[in-house]
Backbone:
């Protein structure tokens, strides 16, 4: 059974380690803060100038003045701080962030990412994604494996304008966990009830498959 967005976020939350400073991109990545273990200390950073983000607020408890980079209302944890974008991007560019979690439209087998523009559609610009992919040493992508037409978004080569080159380390989709190695995508885990053959059929890029591929542990 393919995962939903919440389950993708739950699986990625397992990659977050104690003491990490983590930047969450727009979309599925913002959900990760809801599922990080309670027994570890993690600082979530948003590029609009927040350090110490918590889970999303419950309905009726939103504060319109406290938002993330996607303009969603958020909560903050004790000790959280607010600062301007210049300070925030200084933090990103100086590699103070341990893990960056981004959404994507396409990822290639050599770690290229396209997540900002579809030709012919109006966009405001690349935004902070450019700085994040250029500076981060550990990037995990949260994305859907196929598009609405059923076409693979896990590719040998990206077809959309690139945001970054050779920067992605791991991809988590509704079907699989993939690691990007010097030889391409390595299949690490499969979604519960999803077969290796299902993943191969949904993937344009070649997959490295070694031995028995375990199911993802979500909870």
Residues:
């Amino acid at each position: 059974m393919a995962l939903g967005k919440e389950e993708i976020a739950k699986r990625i939350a397992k990659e977050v380690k104690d003491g990490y400073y983590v930047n969450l991109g727009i979309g599925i990545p913002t959900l990760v803060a809801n599922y990080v273990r309670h027994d570890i200390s993690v600082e979530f950073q948003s590029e609009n100038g927040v350090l110490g983000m918590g889970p999303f607020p419950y309905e009726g408890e939103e504060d319109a003045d406290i938002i993330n980079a996607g303009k969603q209302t958020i909560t903050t944890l004790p000790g959280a701080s607010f600062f301007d974008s210049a300070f925030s991007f200084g933090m990103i560019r100086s590699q103070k962030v341990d893990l960056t979690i981004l959404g994507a439209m396409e990822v290639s087998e050599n770690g290229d990412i396209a997540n900002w523009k579809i030709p012919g559609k109006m966009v405001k610009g690349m935004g902070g994604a450019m700085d994040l992919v250029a500076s981060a040493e550990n990037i995990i992508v949260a994305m859907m494996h196929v598009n609405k037409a059923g076409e693979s978004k896990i590719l040998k080569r990206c077809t959309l304008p690139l945001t970054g080159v050779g920067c992605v380390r791991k991809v988590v989709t509704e079907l699989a966990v993939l690691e990007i190695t010097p030889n391409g995508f390595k299949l690490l885990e499969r979604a519960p009830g999803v077969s290796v053959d299902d993943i191969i059929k949904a993937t344009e890029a070649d997959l490295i498959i070694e031995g028995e591929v375990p199911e993802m542990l979500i909870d």
About this structure: The chain has a mean pLDDT of 93. Residues 5-13 form the longest helix (9 residues).
